[in-house]
Design goal:
Elements lengths: L1 E4 L5 E4 L2 E7 L5 H15 L6 E7 L8 H8 L15 H5 L3 E4 L11 E4 L10 H23 L6
Parallel strand pairs: 3-4, 3-5, 5-6
Antiparallel strand pairs: 1-2
Length: about 150
């Protein structure tokens, strides 16, 4: 974090917060969380303050089609995104890491939270919608907690 004093005795901070969403395959829950986090970052005008990372410990070849469909229903396009691995270095650089119910990750200097969500990969769209809505709620809560409540859409 860089801190500078302005002429008006205001303190301005130049800090980037790194939010990371991960699971084993990076093909469902973490992709949903990433899409919602990107939307929240944009809605709140935090593009220059929030970096969003996603990855998995054993990435799949593609994002689950049912996840692509469920996110498209709420106006989010993840078609064409590819699951990817996440490094220990990327995790340790994060300010917050959410795992999706498939990890006992513990990082000494990073706030972590396991969201214990069902894997949407082999579920019907009705079940995936419920998972999607829960992921959205949790992502918004992370942004509210770290950056204050959303003042309007």
């Amino acid at each position: 974090m860089t801190t500078t004093d302005t002429a008006d005795d205001e303190t301005v901070t130049d800090e980037t917060t790194i939010l990371t969403f991960m699971c084993v395959r990076n093909a469902g829950r973490s992709q949903m969380a990433t899409a919602f986090a990107e939307r929240e970052r944009d809605r709140r005008g935090l593009d220059d303050r929030v970096e969003i990372r996603t990855g998995g410990t054993a990435p799949a070849d593609t994002v689950h089609e049912v996840v692509v469909e469920a996110l498209a229903e709420v106006g989010l396009d993840v078609n064409g995104r590819e699951p990817r691995a996440i490094s220990d270095e990327a995790l340790s650089e994060s300010d917050f890491v959410a795992t999706m119910g498939c990890s006992t990750l513990e990082l000494e200097t990073v706030e972590t939270d396991d969201w214990d969500l069902d894997d949407p990969g082999e579920r019907p769209i009705e079940a995936v919608r419920e998972i999607r809505d829960e992921v959205e709620r949790r992502v918004i809560a992370v942004f509210d907690e770290r950056f204050g409540g959303d003042d309007g859409e």
